[in-house]
Write a structure and sequence with these properties.
Length: 463
């Protein structure tokens, strides 16, 4: 990598050339040409957004448009050379550099972005290998993206997927770090959505636990997607980054590789993840599958989990409540529950001759896998009614929360709200009442935006 140097256009522009680190070090000329055609073609804006998010380490906003506007002069170009490929970055965020050199971990993540954007564009979306119109074809695509990224590893079950919000209190963040520490001490690895808050805390804690156990190759996997990565830039602990094509494939990747799932306090994004999971677990074809799920937080968050549990019980029923456990204020107990649950996962998959590294036996309906676009028309058409199987209601509620995420932090969602007003959601009076109560609590607890930032609702509930 060359140090930043002045470009020829203006006195304030800087141009940095970066060599590969961790990915794409050895490439053929054919592969380099393919990289360039992808980077300079229709995927260029996706590459630019994801690269900017990786470089914007320590960013303090959850508004995608704000990030893109702040760095509107940022540019990334793919440079071909005989020995492979390098990236030229114009006006990159200065936080990515120390004494004129890019931080090594950021450089690794930068080329992970390039790897995934290229693979998804050429092999998944642009090739004939995957039938994205079928459920099995989508699952196969998710598997190959994860395998291409080096995420899938043979061995005993040891991966805890951690979900939770970026807009959480300091006490909740510290608690998530303590749980991560106990997870690391028990020699388990961590996967999160890669951002700040409850996505960073478990990784940071696990890193200390791994250090105490002299584990030098701890895994801190971050799974994200282009629409949300600018609002949730990868935290510095992530050492394996995966960019999935869309939110639905991101969520499927989480549940396919998880050996256990822990849910910390969060807002609409965490609710979306949790409802996606319940939509799967409530499917009768998944009733006998083993996947431990624990909801946890400090004592100050007890009311939050009471609200979540009440919402699930009132909308999806007692069976849904039986698919998870709630543990408050005891990080060691949570980690012990996860480890014991993983032993059951190992025994179940061994008995079924199933892979440890990818949960092939989970059945997902296409309604959960098909990308949901949060338009005003699609949000208004959601079936938020009780007279349907709980798994289908969970899937519809998941879409509702996905739309709220879009309206809160995604560029296209924010613009849609500005142009046409809030999204409208309608359904049964009791479902709408429960939803209103939960969302009002999220707003009151500042779980819709980073603390200190005023929240303007992007939704309206209609009975």
């Amino acid at each position: 990598m060359t140090a930043p140097r002045k470009a020829g256009r203006t006195a304030t522009e800087t141009l940095v050339e970066v060599m590969p680190e961790g990915s794409l070090e050895l490439l053929s000329q054919h592969e380099v040409n393919r990289l360039r055609s992808t980077g300079e073609g229709g995927q260029h804006e996706v590459l630019r957004r994801c690269a900017l998010a990786v470089l914007n380490v320590g960013g303090h906003t959850d508004d995608t448009r704000e990030v893109l506007e702040k760095y509107r002069d940022f540019e990334v170009l793919i440079v071909q050379q005989d020995r492979g490929v390098k990236l030229a970055l114009r006006n990159a965020p200065p936080e990515a550099f120390v004494d004129g050199r890019m931080i090594r971990g950021i450089r690794e993540l930068l080329f992970a972005v390039l790897r995934d954007v290229v693979y998804i564009n050429t092999e998944v979306a642009g090739g004939a290998q995957f039938d994205l119109g079928s459920s099995d074809g989508i699952t196969n695509a998710v598997f190959h993206i994860l395998r291409n990224a080096g995420t899938l590893r043979a061995g005993e079950p040891d991966l805890v997927v951690c979900w939770g919000g970026h807009a959480i209190s300091r006490e909740e963040y510290d608690y998530s770090k303590k749980v991560g520490y106990e997870i690391g001490l028990r020699e388990m690895n961590v996967c999160t959505g890669c951002g700040r808050g409850a996505m960073k805390g478990p990784m940071k804690g696990a890193a200390v636990g791994h250090a105490k156990q002299r584990i030098a190759d701890g895994r801190y996997i971050g799974i994200t997607e282009p629409g949300i990565i600018a609002a949730e830039s990868p935290n510095p602990i992530v050492n394996q980054l995966v960019i999935m094509p869309d939110m639905e494939k991101r969520l499927e990747a989480f549940v396919r590789i998880a050996h256990a799932i822990v849910v910390f306090p969060g807002g609409v994004g965490t609710a979306e993840e949790f409802l996606f999971l319940l939509g799967i677990l409530l499917d009768p074809r998944n009733r006998d599958l083993t996947l431990p799920v624990v909801l946890t937080g400090p004592p100050s968050s007890a009311a939050y989990f009471t609200q979540i549990d009440a919402f699930i019980g009132a909308t999806l029923g007692r069976e849904a409540q039986q698919r998870y456990q709630i543990s408050i204020g005891d990080p060691a107990a949570v980690a012990t529950m996860l480890r014991q649950g993983m032993r059951r996962v190992r025994d179940f998959r061994h008995a079924q001759n199933d892979a440890y590294y990818f949960n092939w036996r989970l059945h997902l309906e296409m309604d959960l896998q098909r990308p949901f676009h949060a338009t005003h028309e699609n949000m208004a058409a959601l079936a938020l009614y009780r007279n349907q199987p709980p798994s289908q209601l969970a899937a519809s509620l998941r879409k509702a929360f996905s739309g709220l995420v879009s309206g809160n932090v995604k560029d296209e969602g924010i613009r849609a709200i500005e142009s046409h007003g809030p999204f409208e959601l309608s359904g049964d009076r009791d479902v709408m009442s429960q939803l209103d109560r939960l969302l009002a609590a999220f707003v009151a607890q500042q779980r819709m935006k980073l603390p200190g930032r005023a929240y303007q609702p992007c939704y309206r509930l209609v009975v």
